Structures are given as structure tokens and as C-alpha cells.
Amino acid sequence: MADEQTLDTQIPQDEQTAEAVAGEDLAARVQALEEQLATAQDQSLRVAADLQNVRRRAEQDVEKAHKFALEKFANDLLPVVDSLERGLELSNPNDEAIKAVREGVELTLKLFHDTLKRYQLEAVDPHGAPFNPEHHQAMAMEESTHVEPNSVLKVFQKGYLLNGRLLRPAMVVVSKAPAAAPPSIDEQA
Questions:
Q1: Model pTM greater than 0.85?
Q2: Exposure pattern of 90-116 as b/e (b: 16+ CB <10 Å)?
Q3: How many CB atoms lie within 10 A of CB 26?
């Protein structure tokens, strides 16, 4: 009988130990599951943010494609506009023999300019403006006392902007301050 009492007292202790171990296992399992849940939530937020970034970039790419789809075509048309403008510059407006042709070229050029404007293609004609390296390409420098140094004196070729972005820089001659006269012989002595 003594053995039975020993067994009776041991069983509850073993059950308590088993319950304690089970409780610790449960707490550890809950902790592990909470960590997994936090990791899964973090990953979910990151995937959602990545998806939003991809969507935004795709929208921007589509917008740029719409805005600048005409870039190559516009670049190919600019020499035609340049030639029409050059033809008008070189022809004499008082010559009766070419008056009708000149009027036709003027109308064609106006039509070209209106079409370019409709597609947000703007001319950059900086004559007299300060030199801007972002929109102008300096072809030469020339001394001038009539304008401020670093101003555009002549425009060889107009530049163009497409939706505010430079398509072709204006080719210009830029002014510089006149060089000081060399000292005379009296000043050197």
C-alpha cells in the first residue's frame, strides 16, 4: 500500500510537470506564431508598397511616352522648317517675280509653326537674351560694346523644346567684353 500512496502522490506531480511543460510549449509556440505573423505582415506591407511603386512608374512611363512620342518625328521635321525660314531670309521681299512663291512659302511656314505649337513644340530664339548653356550651344564668341558680355548676338539656328524638354539647342554667337587695348609705348616707359 505504501507503494500505492507513492504512486498517487507522484502522478499529480507528473501531471503538474506535464502541464507546466505543455504551458511552456504553448507559450513558445504562441511567441513563434506571433513572430511569423509580424514577419508576414511586414512582407505584405512591402509587397503592397512595391506594387504601388511599380504602378506609379508605369503611369509615369506611359505619360512620358505620350508626351515625347513625337520626339524623333519632330527632330526630322526641324530641318524642313529651317530651310523654309532660310529661304525667306535669302529671298527679296520686293522682287515681284518671286512674290507669289514667297507668299506660298510664308503660308507654308505659318502652317508648320501652328502645327508645331499644337504639339507643344516651342522655338527657342534667344537673340539678345543672356546665354543659357541649358538651351543654347555657343558656336563662337565675339567682342561687343553694344550688349552685355555673355549675351546672344546672333542665332545661327533656332532651338526647340518639346513639352518643356530640350529637343535641339539653339546655335548662337555669344558676346564678350572687348579686349583691353595694348599699352602704348609711353605707358611702358
A1: no
A2: eeeeeeeeeeeebeebeeebeebeeeb
A3: 10
